[in-house]
Amino acid sequence: MSASAGNERGAGSGLRATATRLGRETPIVQVLILAAIFIYGAATLQGFSSLTSIKSMLLLSAFLGLAALGQTIVVLLGHLDLSVPGFIGVGNVLTAILVGQDGWSFVTTVLVILAGSILLGGLSGLISHHFRVQSIVVTLGVNFVLLGVIGVLAASGITGAAPAWLTRFATVGTATLGVGVPPLVVLWLVLAVIAGFFLRRTLAGRRVYLTGSNPVAADLSLVRTGRVVVAAFALSAATAAVTGILLTGFSGSGDVTIGTPYLFTSLTAVIVGGTSIVGARGDYWRTVIGAIMLTVINTVLLAKGYSNADQQILFGLIILVAVLAYGREPRMRDLI
User: Fold this and answer.
1) Count of structural domains, the chain
2) Four-residue CA torsion sign, 227, 204, 28, 172
3) Residue 12 belongs to a domain
């Protein structure tokens, strides 16, 4: 009898261990939650599961997912980037002004925006790493500076419109190579594949995880952690700026406040997807699922008549739950 009970306890422990390992290695919980929310929306909201609605949600998810691409790598390092809204605003407003009003070529504008964003983002990483300043403080300061700059630039009004082709690229009704999927969604999928490969299959990606797990051990392994941190913040700034450029096509023009909703949603998508806020655990595919999940939740809430304040409360609670769920496990740096 005791042997049978022991076997049952052993089997139960084995199942729990397997479930825990599966949850760590795959975003199965997030996928199940996403499926449940979608089924609820489809069952209670007319037109929620229509093709147009699905494409619209994927398009909005793509914007959020792109904004959170660099953020994912920053979080894997154990840092946070709160300058995402500022860089989105810079990309959006400068594209509308330089291309729509001043007649700059789109390519030149993109290069200028990316160069400035990469330099300033890298500077944030450099200050945080070299001077041991909390990244949340540095990037929040950078965000305020950027919002002030675009506020000055847009003080006399933004009259420039997005190029027609950019509008087609970032809208629901456009197909890709005859397939009814918006080009932006296809671009997001391609970038997700590249990001997933980079993080899991390249030496540089492994350095990200090693630095996020234990920067001291990474230094001893001849990993230049300073360069890793600087590159991560530069990438986060670049992906946020690109998101702003693409949002110009979606909105049709420039908007100083267009990046504001992404202040916490870009971070929430990363955390809800299952990437640990303490670093070194997670990947970009989890962020992809997190972005889709948040977009579906937001769509359901809007359709149900909830206000923006209600949505902020819910997203705040989601962040707290996710941090408690994924932030309890100690990092390697805390065990050594």
Assistant:
1) 1
2) positive
3) no
SS3 of 244, please? helix
112 domain-assigned: yes
Q: Give the domain range for residue 39.
A: 29-330
How far, in Å, are 60, 132, 266, 286 from residue 54 at the CA level? 10, 44, 21, 19
The CATH number assigned to the domain holding 195 equals: 1.10.3470
Nearest-10 crossing angle of helices 69-76, 51-67:
50
Q: Is 21 within the bounds of a domain?
A: no
Which residues share a beta bridge with 176?
Answer: 179
23 belongs to a structural domain: no
Is the CB of residue 71 less than 8 Å from the CB of residue 81? yes
268-312 residue pLDDT tens? 999 999 998 888 899 999 999 999 999 999 999 999 999 888 888
List CB contacts of 216: < 8 A, sequence separation 6 or more.
333, 336
Query: How far is the CA of 169 from the CAs of 22, 183, 250, in angstroms?
Result: 37, 6, 8
**Coil vs helix vs strand at 82:** coil
Question: Mind giving me the DSSP string for 265-326?
Answer: HHHHHHHHTT--TTSSS--HHHHHHHHHHHHHHHHHHHHTT--HHHHHHHHHHHHHHHHHHH
Q: For 133-143, what is each residue's pLDDT tens digit?
A: 999 999 999 99
Cβ-based neighbour number of residue 148 at 10 Å: 11
pTM of the model: 0.90
